[in-house]
Amino acid sequence: MDKQNTKEALKILSEIYADARPALHYNSAYELLVAVILSAQCTDERVNKVTAELFREHNTPEKMLSLTQEQLEKYIFSCGLYKSKAAHILSATKDIVEKFGGKVPEGFSELKSLAGVGQKTANVVSAVWFDKDAIAVDTHVFRVSNRLGLAHASTPLKTEEQLKENIPQKDWSKAHHWLIWHGRRVCHSQKPDCANCPLSKVCDDYLHRQN
């Protein structure tokens, strides 16, 4: 995608998804962190149902640590990968209490030092809670950005790097949400709705298939 098409694509996305916000429900940095960990290979809708129950009595690091791993597993079972997620959440929570004074750390490297927190999760927390310029590449962002041509990369990390090169820094966090919502509503994994997509005129994948 050339610079002109990139500019046009971002303009269209910004207009269509001007009010795009995270779909996960949270009231604190800690709740957001736990919700994002739970969202791996799970829908946000399912996570919100699980956290509505979990956070009723276990919405702080101290309260979470009152649970055994087996007890936490019962809460989050329906999110999938529940054993590893429970272990990660409790390990990360223990570090938050013991190393960071009970508060989710703001520094990117400190965030990534927590169990279960990789590049994507750290970027989400940085952008959404700490209001920093960051692009989290989940499956939607990876798929949509590479189809459009905003990136041409084989991994999420390389996709993130290319998106940062092609999108103005002030728009990084917002573009993350634009791409997610476009992936959910139009650019589906199996059957993208190209016929009704306002981006088809600048989409590398669509234009390539027409030639």
TrEMBL record:
It comes from the Bacteria. Its cofactor is [4Fe-4S] cluster. One of its GO terms (molecular function) is DNA binding. Pfam families: HhH-GPD. It is an enzyme of class 4 (lyase). Binds 1 [4Fe-4S] cluster. [4Fe-4S] cluster binds at residues 187, 194, 197, 203. Keywords: 4Fe-4S, DNA damage, DNA repair, DNA-binding, Endonuclease, Glycosidase, Hydrolase, Iron, Iron-sulfur, Lyase, Metal-binding, Nuclease. PANTHER family: A/G-SPECIFIC ADENINE GLYCOSYLASE/ENDONUCLEASE III, ENDONUCLEASE III. DNA repair enzyme that has both DNA N-glycosylase activity and AP-lyase activity. The DNA N-glycosylase activity releases various damaged pyrimidines from DNA by cleaving the N-glycosidic bond, leaving an AP (apurinic/apyrimidinic) site. The AP-lyase activity cleaves the phosphodiester bond 3' to the AP site by a beta-elimination, leaving a 3'-terminal unsaturated sugar and a product with a terminal 5'-phosphate. This is Endonuclease III. It comes from Candidatus Borkfalkia excrementavium. The gene is nth.
